[in-house]
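Students often ask why inverse folding is considered easier than folding. One informal answer: many sequences map to the same fold, so there is more than one right answer. In these notes we will look at a single instance of the problem. The structure comes first.
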């Protein structure tokens, strides 16, 4: 099997590694990975991997090296589990690799949980796999590209909504061209229309962001001073840029009612600012928010609410985001490095297949 290994302390140092394909033991199945989406969300997994355990899902045999998690589709190619047959397809959390050995638990017609020993203590939201039958379904590329990060966006809006938006009347989103920010803008537009949505983006992406129609105001980073600092505002920072975060806090001061840190699309400027005016920035962790909401409304209602907004998002961006299929080790490694360097245009959706 092939796996793309990444140096945990030098994320640009990546290499394809060949190893023996594992064979399932009693109760296990072997998945062959068909395709996965590559987004800035995956770079976030790598950047904060040690702090939140993302490297622990698909460990390598060599210290200092990890495999970046992705979301995608796989097919069962060997099975020692009585209820799961060869040929079935699944959707879920996968490694950048050709194969994955899992131990299905809590098996139902809809899915299962990987109960492999090293994953038992990890966030369950990442250990769940949906069973899809044997044939490819409609909209799979969009599901892989948007659904994981969309769920994060849905949860951010829900947490803000339940907190009555901390008394704010506006929301500032950095990296406004990112799919997660676009999704958050869409959910907020639908579920909290009273909140003004302000997008911050680079000069090169400003036309794209404006054309989506998901923001009330779009500014370049250099135009931050043009935003109304008298308007009580919450900040949702997807960029991970310490200087930008300091500028945001300095601009709104006490009118910044909440500061949320989500992901990091600008990894070269991740170091946080210190002694910021206004509220202390809080790191948003989607699995914790998901578990809280699941307990509150139950899994069926959770899925219904997410799906309704997800379908609206797919429709809203259909004319703005395209899907590209990449095949082969070199193409996939190059795509990872481009995504790491924030060099992938926001209107590109990358679906990867090893071969």
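Output (designed amino acids):
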């Amino acid at each position: 099997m092939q796996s793309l290994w990444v140096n945990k302390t030098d994320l640009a140092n990546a290499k394809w590694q060949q190893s023996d394909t594992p064979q399932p033991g009693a109760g296990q199945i072997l998945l062959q990975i068909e395709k996965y989406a590559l987004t800035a969300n995956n770079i976030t997994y790598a950047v904060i991997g040690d702090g939140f355990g993302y490297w622990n899902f698909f460990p390598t045999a060599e210290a200092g090296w990890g495999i970046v998690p992705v979301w995608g589709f796989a097919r069962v190619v060997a099975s020692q589990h009585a209820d799961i047959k060869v040929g079935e397809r699944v959707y879920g959390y996968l490694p950048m690799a050709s194969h994955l050995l899992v131990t299905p638990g809590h098996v139902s017609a809809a899915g299962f949980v990987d109960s492999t020993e090293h994953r038992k203590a990890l966030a369950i939201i990442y250990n769940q796999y949906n069973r899809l039958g044997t044939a490819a379904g409609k909209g799979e590329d969009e599901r892989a590209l948007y659904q994981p990060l969309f769920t994060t966006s849905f949860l951010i809006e829900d947490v803000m909504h339940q907190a009555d938006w901390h008394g704010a009347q506006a929301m500032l989103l950095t990296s406004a061209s990112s799919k997660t920010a676009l999704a958050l803008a869409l959910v907020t537009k639908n579920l909290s229309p009273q909140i003004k949505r302000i997008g911050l983006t680079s000069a090169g992406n400003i036309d794209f962001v404006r054309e989506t129609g998901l923001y009330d105001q779009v500014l370049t980073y250099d135009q931050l001073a043009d935003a109304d600092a008298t308007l009580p505002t919450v900040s949702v920072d997807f960029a991970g840029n310490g200087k930008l975060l300091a500028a945001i806090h300095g601009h709104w001061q006490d009118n910044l009612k909440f500061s949320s840190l989500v992901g990091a699309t600008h990894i070269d400027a991740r170091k946080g600012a210190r002694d910021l005016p206004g509220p202390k920035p809080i790191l948003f962790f989607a699995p914790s928010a998901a578990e809280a909401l699941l307990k509150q409304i139950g899994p069926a209602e959770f899925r219904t609410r997410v799906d309704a907004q997800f379908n609206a998002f797919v429709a809203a961006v259909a004319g703005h985001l395209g899907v590209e299929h990449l095949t082969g080790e070199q193409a996939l490694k190059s795509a990872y490095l481009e995504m790491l360097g924030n060099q992938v245009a926001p209107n590109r959706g990358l679906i990867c297949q090893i071969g």
